[in-house]
Design brief:
The complex is a heterodimer. By secondary structure, chain A is mostly helical. Chain A is built from twelve helices and no strands. In chain A, 45% of the residues are buried. In chain B, the strands form four sheets. Chain B has an eight-stranded mixed beta sheet with strand order 6-7-8-3-9-10-12-11, with helices on both faces. An eight-stranded mixed beta sheet of chain B has the order 18-19-20-15-21-22-24-23, sandwiched between helices. Chain B has a four-stranded antiparallel beta sheet with strand order 2-1-4-5, with helices on one face. By secondary structure, chain B is of the alpha/beta class. Classes of the chains: A mainly alpha, B alpha/beta. At the A-B interface, helix 8 of A face helix 1, strand 18 and helix 16 of B.
C-alpha cells in the first residue's frame, strides 16, 4: 500500500529537505531539548568564564568568616575554611565538565570501533567482544571504577580513561545492534563488489548511517558520566583537592549538615542534580528527534 | 445477513465529488480531487494508477479509516446507501462489522501474529453474537469456501506458519465472513509470486460467482485489473482521468495517460529488437501542488494552450468517460520515446563465452540442516547477450546471482570461469580485473545506495576504485556517465533520498557501469518501480547494452520484462535448471511443464482467458527436496513413477534449447499445442 502522505514522485530538490535538516528542526522545536540545553549551557558558561565573574577568590578562605550563613555579601554562605560557597559552586563546574565529556567521548570512540568490528565481522570476533561486553555490563560500574582507580592512582586523566573504558562496551553494544541491521543492506554488498576493504566499509559506508543511535547513546552516557564522576569525587577517588568540584565539596562538608550548616552541601548537590537533569533532558530531546 | 435493511436500488459504493487532503507540516496537501465514481450491486470495479495517485486513500476513505492527518474537505461517500461521513461512531462500527470489509496487500501484517487463525476468525463471528462452537464451524466452512482443502489444522495454526498464499486466503475468508455488500481489495496479490497470484485471482473470480458481493479492486497492475474487473477507473494524481468497461478501456483507451500506461508495458511478445518501449515523460505532480488546467498537461504530448488553461470535465463518451479535451485524438498520442534504437548486437556464439558455469552448487548450513539452494547448474553467457533467470521465489535465482558475483562462496566442486580463467568464489579473492568485470544492479535502490553519500560520491567512488580514474579526470568521466544514464547534472550533489525511485535506479546503473564491466547482474531492477519508470529503465538497459556490449544476467518475476530484454532464458526450480534456451523458443514452446505453468499464471492484459495450467501449493522446501524430478509434486503433466524415482536429464529439444523432463519434446509440443497457437497469434488488437 502506498502511503499517500509521503509520496514524492517528483524529485524537485527545492521542495525536499534532507533528513539532517528535518531532525535539526525537530530538535529546535522540542521544549525538552531546549530546556535541557539552557541548563547545560548555563553550567558550561560557568565552567568557561566563571573564574573571571565570581565575586570572591574561590580558593582562598577568610578564617574570620567560617561557616557563615547566606548573607547579602556571601549569597550561599561560606564553608568551614571561610571560602565563598557561591563562587565555589560556579567555578566547581569546570572539572566535572572537563572530565565527564572527555570520558564519554573516549567511551564513544572506543565503543564505536568495537561495535563496528563486532557487528561487521560477526563470527569469533563478535563472540569474544560480546562476551567481554556482557561481563563488563554485569558488574556495577562504580565498583570497577573504584578498583581501577585504586590500582592506577587517581588523577583527572585516569578518571577519564577508567570511565571511558568502562563505557566503551555499553556503547559498543548499541553500535553493534545498529551495524547488524545496516550490514544486510545492499550498499555493503555493492562496496564489496567494488573491492573495498573492511575498514572502508565500516567507517565510510556504515558509520555515517548509524550516527543517530550513537549520538543518542552518547548523550545518555554523558548524564551517567557526570553522575559517576561526582560519585567518585565524593568517595575521594575522583577529582582531587584543591578543586572546587561539587562532589568533593559535598564530601568535605556533609558531616556539617547535622550542625545546621546546610548551605555548605545543598547548593553543590543542587548543582550536580541540575546538570544531570539538564543533560538527560537533552538526551530525551535528541532521542525523540532521532529515533522517529 | 446484513442487519440494516436498505433500499434494493442503492449502489454498493457511491463516491461523489470527494475532496481529500493530508495535513503535512501545517499544510493541507490535496490528494483526491473531485473524485466521483460508483460501484453497482455485484459489480467489480477496478482502480488503477501509479503509486502516489491516491488509490489506497480511496480505499481508506471508503471505510472512513483515514490516517489522523487525513481531512475530508468536501463530497460524499455512500456505502450501501448510507452517508459514511454522517454516521456516528457506533453506526460506523456497525457498518464496518456488517457491510464492508477490506483485504490488504500484505496478509502477514494484516493478520494478528499472536492469535491462532481459528481465534481470529472466531472474533468476527463473536462480534455478531454467535456462540463459540458455531463460530468454529462457520470459520471452518469459510476456509473451505476459499479452497483450503483441510481447514481444521489451519484453524489451529498461527499466521507465520502459513505460506503467503495461504495467509491471503485466510484474510479473504475473514473479509467474506461478514458477507459484506462491498469488498475492498487493496493490491491483494502484489506481494505474492506469480503462480500464487494466479491461484488467488482464480479464487476471487470464483467467489464472485458464488456470492453477490461488490468489489473495489485496487492495483497498479493493469493486467490483474483487466482480468478481475467489469469496469475500470484510471486514477492520476487523485483525479479520475478515464473510466469505462474494462474491455473498452484497455482495447481503446481515450485518455493520453491510459494510452501511455499501456504503451509502457512490454507485452504481446515485444522484444528489445522490436524497438524501444514508449514512456511517459516527467513526473507525477507532488501531492498538494496547485494545478491550473488539465492535471496531466505537463506530461502530455497532445497538450496545448487550452489544456494548460482549462481543466477538462469528465466527458461522457457513451457509457464511458474521459477527462480530456482531445479524447478523440488520444489513441494517436505521439510517442514520447522514439522507437528506433541502435541495431541489436549480433552475438558471436562461435567465440568462447564470457562466463562459463559448470556444476555450480551452493549448500547452506551443515549436517541435518543442509539447504541445497543450487545444484548442478551449468550455463554459458556470451558477450553482449542477456540471459533471463526466471522462477518462483525460493527457486535460487538470487543465490545464483550472489554466487556469481562472489558475495556468497559456492560449494568447492563448482567451477565458474571468466574468459576461460577460473574465478575465485569470493570477491575478496578476485583480482581487480575480475572484480571489475562483474557488477550488479540491485532490486531496491534504497538499500543499494548509501543514503549518507551524494550521487557524486556514489558514482565517483566506483570510478576511482574500479576504473582507476585519476582525480583530475574524474569529474569529466562522472558527467559523461551520468549523461549516459540520462541523469541531469544537477542531481550530482543530492543524496539518494531526494531522488525518485527511477532516478535512484539510474544512479545504481551508472555505478554498475562505472568500471566498464563485462557482465552486470540485474536483480529485479524494475520490480520496485512504476510501469512508466520501468519502461524507461528497460530502454536504458537495452541502449547501454548495445553501446557497450555488456552481458546481462536479468532476474525478474515479470515474464513480460524478461522476454523484452532477454536473448536466452534459464528457468530455475528448487536450485535446478529446468529449462534453458533462446527466449522465443522458451516462450513459444515446447516448454517444460513448469515454464508452461509460469507462463499461464501471467494474467493477459487483453482480458482473454486461455487454457490455464495451475500449480498446486507452494514451492517445496529445499531442505528436503522431492525425489526424482524435483517438480513432480506439483507437475500438472506428471507421467507416473518414473518422475518420482529418476531425475530427468537436460535434453536438447532443438539446438541450444534444453528441457529437463521425461516427456519428450515433441510430445510436450503436442500437449501444449493449443497454448502455442494462442501465443503465436495473441492479438486481434491494433498496435
Amino acid at each position: 500500500m502506498s502511503a499517500p502522505a509521503e509520496t514524492a514522485g517528483a524529485a524537485d530538490s527545492s521542495t525536499l529537505r534532507t533528513a539532517r535538516h528535518d531532525r535539526l528542526r525537530l530538535l529546535l522545536r522540542s521544549v525538552t531539548f531546549l530546556a535541557g540545553m539552557a541548563i547545560v549551557l548555563f553550567w558550561v558558561g560557568c565552567a568557561l568564564f566563571g573564574a573571571r565573574l565570581v565575586p570572591y577568590d574561590p580558593y582562598s578562605g577568610d578564617l574570620l568568616n567560617t561557616l557563615g550563613p547566606p548573607t547579602a555579601d556571601n549569597w550561599f554562605g561560606t564553608d568551614q575554611l571561610g571560602r565563598d560557597v557561591f563562587s565555589r559552586v560556579i567555578v566547581g563546574a569546570r572539572d566535572i565538565l572537563t572530565v565527564a565529556p572527555l570520558a564519554t567521548l573516549l567511551g564513544t570512540l572506543l565503543g564505536t570501533a568495537l561495535g563496528l568490528m563486532a557487528g561487521y565481522f560477526r563470527g569469533v570476533i563478535d563472540d569474544v567482544l560480546s562476551r567481554i561486553i556482557d561481563a563488563v555490563n554485569a558488574l556495577p560500574l562504580i565498583i570497577i571504577a573504584l578498583l581501577a582507580l585504586v590500582a592506577l592512582g587517581t588523577s583527572n586523566t585516569t578518571v577519564v580513561i577508567v570511565i571511558g573504558v568502562i563505557f566503551a562496551p555499553i556503547i559498543a553494544r548499541t553500535v553493534r545492534a545498529a551495524v547488524l541491521s545496516e550490514r544486510e543492506l545492499d550498499y555493503v554488498g555493492a562496496a564489496r563488489l567494488r573491492g573495498e576493504n573492511a575498514f572502508y566499509i565500516m567507517f565510510i559506508e556504515i558509520l555515517p548511517n548509524i550516527v543517530p543511535p550513537i549520538l543518542v547513546e552518547t548523550t545518555v552516557r554523558l548524564g551517567y558520566a557526570i553522575f559517576t564522576v561526582a560519585t567518585l569525587s565524593f568517595l575521594g577517588f575522583g577529582i582531587q583537592p584543591p578543586s572546587a568540584d561539587w562532589g568533593l565539596a559535598i564530601s568535605d562538608s556533609y558531616g556539617l549538615i547535622d550542625g545546621g550548616f546546610w548551605w555548605t552541601v545543598l547548593f553543590d548537590a543542587f548543582a550536580i542534580a541540575s546538570l544531570v537533569v539538564g543533560v538527560n533532558l537533552v538526551a530525551d530531546g535528541v532521542q525523540s528527534a532521532f529515533e522517529t | 445477513m446484513s442487519a440494516a435493511p436498505t433500499a434494493p436500488a442503492a449502489d454498493a459504493l457511491t463516491v461523489s465529488d470527494l475532496e481529500l487532503a493530508y495535513r503535512v507540516r501545517g499544510h493541507d496537501r490535496q490528494v483526491l480531487r473531485k473524485l466521483s465514481f460508483r460501484i453497482g450491486r455485484g459489480e467489480s470495479y477496478g482502480l488503477v494508477g501509479e503509486s502516489g495517485c491516491g488509490k489506497s486513500t480511496v480505499a481508506l476513505a471508503a471505510v472512513r479509516y483515514l490516517p489522523r492527518n487525513g481531512r475530508i474537505r468536501g463530497g460524499q461517500v455512500l456505502v450501501d446507501g448510507r452517508d459514511l461521513f454522517k454516521l456516528g461512531d457506533s453506526d460506523l462500527r456497525q457498518l464496518r462489522a456488517t457491510t464492508v470489509s477490506m483485504v490488504y496487500q500484505d496478509p502477514g501484517r494484516a493478520l494478528n501474529p499472536s492469535l491462532r487463525i481459528g481465534r481470529q476468525m472466531g472474533e468476527i463471528f463473536a462480534l455478531r453474537g454467535i456462540g463459540k462452537a458455531e463460530a468454529h464451524d462457520r470459520a471452518e466452512a469459510m476456509l473451505q469456501r476459499v479452497r483450503i482443502a483441510d481447514p481444521r489444522p489451519v484453524l489451529h495454526r498461527y499466521p507465520h506458519q502459513l505460506s503467503g498464499g495461504m495467509q491471503q486466503r485466510v484474510a479473504i475468508a475473514m473479509a467474506l465472513s461478514i458477507e459484506p455488500k462491498l469488498l475492498i481489495l487493496d493490491e491483494p496479490t502484489t506481494g505474492l509470486d506469480a503462480t500464487v497470484e494466479a491461484e488467488v485471482l482464480d479464487l476471487i473470480a470464483r467467489l464472485r460467482g458464488e456470492i453477490s458481493t461488490s468489489v473495489l479492486f485496487i492495483s497498479h497492475n493493469l493486467a490483474v485489473i483487466a482480468r478481475m474487473c467489469d469496469r475500470v477507473g484510471v486514477l492520476y494524481a487523485g483525479t479520475l482521468v478515464e473510466e469505462g468497461a474494462t474491455r473498452d478501456l484497455f482495447n481503446d483507451p481515450r485518455h493520453p495517460y491510459t494510452v501511455g500506461l499501456l504503451r509502457c508495458l512490454p507485452r504481446r511478445g515485444r522484444r528489445k529488437d522490436h524497438g524501444r518501449l514508449d514512456t511517459i515523460p516527467g513526473f507525477l505532480p507532488a501531492p498538494g501542488s496547485v494545478m491550473q488546467g488539465c492535471i496531466f498537461a505537463e506530461r502530455c504530448a497532445l497538450a496545448d494552450d487550452l489544456c494548460r488553461r482549462v481543466e477538462p470535465d469528465l466527458v461522457d463518451l457513451g457509457g464511458r468517460h474521459s477527462r480530456c479535451h482531445y479524447h478523440d485524438k488520444a489513441p494517436g498520442l505521439p510517442r514520447a520515446t522514439p522507437s528506433d534504437m541502435a541495431a541489436p548486437l549480433a552475438i558471436a556464439r562461435e567465440q568462447a563465452p564470457v562466463l562459463t558455469v559448470a556444476n555450480l552448487a551452493k549448500t547452506f548450513g551443515s549436517g541435518l540442516h543442509r539447504v541445497r539452494a543450487l545444484s548442478g547448474v551449468n550455463l554459458e553467457l556470451w558477450s553482449g547477450e542477456t540471459l533471463g533467470l526466471v522462477g518462483e521465489s525460493g527457486s535460487g535465482k538470487s543465490t545464483l546471482a550472489r554466487v556469481l558475483l562472489g558475495l556468497t562462496a559456492p560449494d568447492s566442486d563448482s567451477r565458474v570461469e571468466l574468459d576461460g580463467k577460473a574465478l575465485p568464489g569470493s570477491t575478496d579473492d578476485r583480482n581487480p580485473e575480475q572484480v571489475k568485470a562483474l557488477q550488479i544492479v540491485f532490486q531496491n535502490p534504497d538499500s543499494a545506495l548509501n543514503r549518507s553519500h551524494s550521487v557524486k560520491g556514489l558514482i565517483g567512488r566506483s570510478l576511482a576504485k574500479l576504473a582507476k580514474v585519476a582525480r583530475g579526470d574524474r569529474m569529466a568521466r562522472l558527467v559523461a556517465l551520468t549523461r549516459a544514464v540520462r541523469l541531469a547534472d544537477r542531481y550530482l550533489s543530492v543524496r539518494p533520498r531526494q531522488l525518485s525511485g527511477g532516478l535512484k535506479q539510474r544512479v545504481a546503473i551508472a555505478r554498475a557501469f562505472a568500471g566498464d564491466p563485462r557482465i552486470i547482474v540485474c536483480d529485479e531492477p524494475t520490480s520496485a518501480l512504476d510501469v512508466s519508470v520501468q519502461a524507461a529503465i528497460l530502454n536504458l538497459l537495452a541502449d547501454l547494452q548495445a553501446e557497450r556490449r555488456v552481458s546481462y544476467i536479468f532476474i525478474s518475476h515479470d515474464l513480460g520484462t524478461v522476454r523484452y530484454l532477454s536473448d536466452r532464458i534459464a528457468v530455475l526450480y528448487l536450485g535446478r535448471l529446468m529449462e534453458i534456451g533462446p527466449a522465443e523458443s522458451v516462450f513459444n514452446g515446447p516448454h517444460h511443464p513448469y515454464t508452461e505453468a509460469l507462463l499461464s499464471a501471467v494474467p493477459a492484459i487483453d482480458g482473454q482467458s486461455r487454457e490455464r495450467i495451475r500449480l498446486e501449493g507452494e514451492i517445496p522446501s529445499a531442505i528436503n527436496p522431492p525425489s526424482g524430478c524435483v517438480f513432480h509434486t506439483r507437475c500438472p503433466r506428471k507421467l507416473g513413477e518414473i518422475c518420482e524415482l529418476h531425475e530427468p536429464p537436460l535434453l536438447a529439444s532443438e539446438p541450444g534449447h534444453e528441457i529437463r523432463c521425461h516427456i519428450p519434446a515433441d510430445v510436450l509440443a503436442g500437449l501444449q499445442h493449443i497454448a502455442v497457437d494462442e501465443k503465436r497469434f495473441p492479438s486481434r488488437l491494433p498496435k
